[in-house]
TrEMBL record:
<keyword id="KW-1003">Cell membrane</keyword>
<feature type="transmembrane region" description="Helical">
    <location>
        <begin position="282"/>
        <end position="302"/>
    </location>
</feature>
<feature type="transmembrane region" description="Helical">
    <location>
        <begin position="377"/>
        <end position="397"/>
    </location>
</feature>
<keyword id="KW-0472">Membrane</keyword>
<keyword id="KW-0812">Transmembrane</keyword>
<dbReference type="InterPro" id="IPR011701">
    <property type="entry name" value="MFS"/>
</dbReference>
<keyword id="KW-1133">Transmembrane helix</keyword>
<feature type="transmembrane region" description="Helical">
    <location>
        <begin position="250"/>
        <end position="270"/>
    </location>
</feature>
<protein>
    <submittedName>
        <fullName>MFS transporter</fullName>
    </submittedName>
</protein>
<feature type="region of interest" description="Disordered">
    <location>
        <begin position="440"/>
        <end position="461"/>
    </location>
</feature>
<feature type="transmembrane region" description="Helical">
    <location>
        <begin position="46"/>
        <end position="69"/>
    </location>
</feature>
<feature type="transmembrane region" description="Helical">
    <location>
        <begin position="167"/>
        <end position="187"/>
    </location>
</feature>
<dbReference type="InterPro" id="IPR036259">
    <property type="entry name" value="MFS_trans_sf"/>
</dbReference>
<feature type="transmembrane region" description="Helical">
    <location>
        <begin position="308"/>
        <end position="328"/>
    </location>
</feature>
<feature type="transmembrane region" description="Helical">
    <location>
        <begin position="218"/>
        <end position="238"/>
    </location>
</feature>
<dbReference type="Pfam" id="PF07690">
    <property type="entry name" value="MFS_1"/>
</dbReference>
<feature type="compositionally biased region" description="Basic residues">
    <location>
        <begin position="440"/>
        <end position="451"/>
    </location>
</feature>
Length: 461
């Protein structure tokens, strides 16, 4: 899998990603300590609001940036966002009011909402071979998992030497280093885009692309399944470990580490697995394992602590991490297959926004239900959400899902360049090719050969 690092531009971008993620991890720890210093016992409320602000920024900003991405060179855009994040992190130690934290968190996460989809859309252009791109997706998954495991360790080591304010300085340096690496990387020229429609039309195009493409609708359902399981782990682990199992505080990061270890193991195995199986098969099997793992978790929370409860929890959390990784990692392949090259920024921005919308639903559900109805019912409810989402994905995503689709164009005139290989058919002109939604293909072909495309999705290109 490491052979993909022989590609110079990708190696620099991946290094930039790792450094930026490490800086983000330091900022997470430092922000918690800053909130406690300013708000004391209300620190959890401050952090909860900051988390909600983060999700709102992700959901609202990413589609707008996706609409503007073709107007700004990607290297310039990503460098500017890294510099914005560096400046915001450097300002955080100087805040004296809660509202200032919320404002700076919004700026920081808005920059991340612009940076991440642009970065994701750049990878398939740097690595056109599917095998290399698959390895890059697994490497990115590993980078996220390693950050969640090692950033707290790094922060703890640094806090033994300096005050938490200096963690923000480390965050800023990480983003500056990321900006320097990106600025030094020559990126391929994106595919030309023929712009039509205003900013709003282009901003919502990615969302409409998901709505019009069956496998992308299924991908969104799979993201909801992951969000349901992941919310249980990220929100309820501390209550389960400290309250229900009565384990010491040090057991909480161990439980979260089991989740990360499962995710990393799957990321390492996926490149080979995807050579032997389809994206649909791998992702659906993993999605259907999530409600099973959550049901086991519900059983653990419904019984009193037993000698086997702690190792059982670690095993369940590792299984959830493995399944989540198997669903999330191939998602980039599905988007790449379903999108024209010029529309990749809009598609990745839409996935970024919509998937975080799923988390915006499941985070409070996991928190409020646990506080009001208890852990067993909470885990069971989210297991039902995961099962419903996985079932919906299996129904929406056709089992037979070929690249090439025969279809009829009723709205293009004879002699149109796109019809060079087409033949006359009832209601228009028929041909077949790798099918994606774009300015010539406004909706997915129906079962009836001459189905009209009237009133369908219009591409902004």
């Amino acid at each position: 899998m490491l052979s993909v690092l022989r590609n110079g531009p990708y190696r620099r971008l991946f290094t930039a990603q790792v450094i930026a993620l490490a800086g983000t991890g330091l900022a997470t720890v430092a922000l918690s300590l800053l909130a406690y210093e300013l708000a004391g016992a209300r620190a959890s409320a401050v952090l909860g609001t900051a988390l909600a602000i983060k999700m709102i920024a992700y959901v609202t900003i990413a589609p707008v940036i996706g609409a503007l991405a073709d107007r700004i060179p990607r290297r310039v855009l990503m460098t500017a966002m890294d510099l914005t994040r560096a400046g915001t992190a450097a300002a955080l130690p100087f805040v004296t009011e809660i509202w200032q934290i919320h404002l700076l968190v919004f700026l920081l996460q808005a920059a991340s909402a612009a940076f991440t989809p642009t970065f994701q859309a750049t990878l398939p252009e740097i690595l056109p071979a599917e095998r290399d791109y698959t390895r890059a997706l697994s490497m990115s998954r590993l980078a996220y998992d390693l950050e969640s495991l090692f950033s707290p360790v790094l922060a703890t080591a640094l806090l033994s030497l300096v005050s938490y304010d200096w963690l923000f300085a480390g965050t800023a340096l990480g983003f500056l280093a990321s900006a320097a690496l990106i600025l030094a990387t020559a990126l391929p020229r994106p595919a030309p885009v023929e712009r039509t429609g205003g900013l709003r039309t282009r901003a919502v195009f990615g969302t409409r692309l998901f709505r019009a493409t069956p496998r992308l609708r299924a991908l969104l359902a799979l993201d909801l399944a992951v969000a349901a399981a992941g919310a249980v782990v990220l929100v309820d682990t501390v209550s389960l470990v400290r309250g229900h199992l009565d384990r010491p505080a040090g057991a909480v990061p161990l439980a979260l580490g089991a989740y990360g270890a499962g995710s990393m193991a799957t990321a390492l195995l996926l490149p080979r697995l995807l050579q032997r199986s389809t994206d649909r098969a791998v992702m659906l099997r993993a999605a259907f394992s999530l409600p099973v793992a959550l049901a086991a978790g519900a059983a653990l929370t419904a019984t009193g602590p037993r000698p086997w409860s702690w190792p059982a929890l670690l095993a369940v959390w590792a299984a959830i991490g493995a399944a989540c990784s198997a669903v999330l990692t191939p998602g980039g392949r599905v988007i790449r297959r379903s999108t024209a090259d010029a529309d990749l920024p809009a598609a990745f921005a839409a996935r970024f926004s919509l998937s975080h919308g799923c988390w915006l639903l499941t985070y409070p559900l996991a928190g409020w239900l646990a506080a009001g109805a208890g852990l067993p019912l909470t885990v069971l409810v989210l297991a039902v959400v995961a099962l419903s989402a996985a079932t919906a994905a299996a129904v929406i995503w056709p089992a037979r899902d070929p690249y090439r689709l025969e279809h009829v164009h009723p709205d293009l005139p004879p002699g149109h360049p796109h019809l060079a290989d087409a033949r006359p058919a009832t209601g228009g002109w028929r041909h077949g090719h790798h099918y994606v939604i774009d300015r010539h293909h406004h909706r997915w072909p129906g079962k009836r050969p001459g189905r009209s495309y009237r009133g369908a999705l219009r591409s902004p290109r």
